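Appendix B. One record, verbatim.
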Amino acid sequence: MAEIALPVIITAISNSDQESFIAGTLFTQGWSVIHRAVDFDSLVEFTESNPEQASSALLLYSPDLNDFNASVFESITLNFRQIIGFASDNTIRSIDDMLHEIPPTATQLATFIRGYVRSPLIRRLPPLVQSNKRARVIAISSAGSCTGASTLAINLAYEMSLKEKKTLLIDANLSEPNIAIYLDQRNLMAEELWRLSTPFLYVKELTRDRITEFDALIEKANVEFDFVIIDVGTIQDLSSQLSDRRADSLVITWAGDHANDLWIVSRPDCIGQMRFKRVAAILGRTSITSAITFVLNMRSSGRKGQEEEKAFLSIATTQKAQHLYVMPFDARNTTTSTDARATLAEVNERGILRKALASIASELIS
């Protein structure tokens, strides 16, 4: 699927403080604010003089803009890529005015606006914030390649199922899906909804061809499960992935806004440290609403492991993470479980990595 560029922004909002808040927030998120109309005539003039720019722009307006003309506005609306109407402090509201309240914080505003630059399937997802929401959704991502994030996702989901929590494990790593292989679930991608793997554990594999089913899937899962664990794959450039519309980024985009927790898993070697540092730096200038958990996986034993953990913490503590986890390197049991197409608990319930994940599972349900 071809990459689609972010729209540029045009503001036409009467309240100067609210307009400055919106324009400033979006500018820091990477959008280009190409015109800030101070009155309705300024908006019309820019639109007519710059049709190409207007056609790629997201217009943010309030109908109490000075000299606003509703009939003229209706005639120019098709000139813009998309339009969002806001009710400012001076707006006289009606029941069907289709206007939105301006989100009170920069994070909430960025989340709201990002929803309008994604594909329709993502735009239909806000109903998840309903009273019937039940599942706790944990998205597990990788700060680079070969971090063992998929192994953690699979085994964390299995540990939740052992505690009799109805759990759905979703493989959303469209480039390198591996959960079906790991758990010996043949033809999993053809499953309409999800498949029972073991008692209390269900599995689902997303594909590019069926990515448009994700919104319906996650909405249904949100009601039916206690936990949803999503393996979202590698985060190459988080700031870009949170706002592009390619299939590979859609679930990451959703997870940044709607998941309860976003885990970012790194590996301890020098390349892993470099990639983790890059992702952490991006997080520092990116607004997401999910709670962040940083995970150092495959920590070595002894003095070498102490140095690895020290380097990890020096990066992780620069960000506001809800949890920091350090997972031990358990090569023997992870290799055995992979070869047997089984979980860590099934091959050795006393393994050090298995015990660490069981402890986290207990913490999550407490």
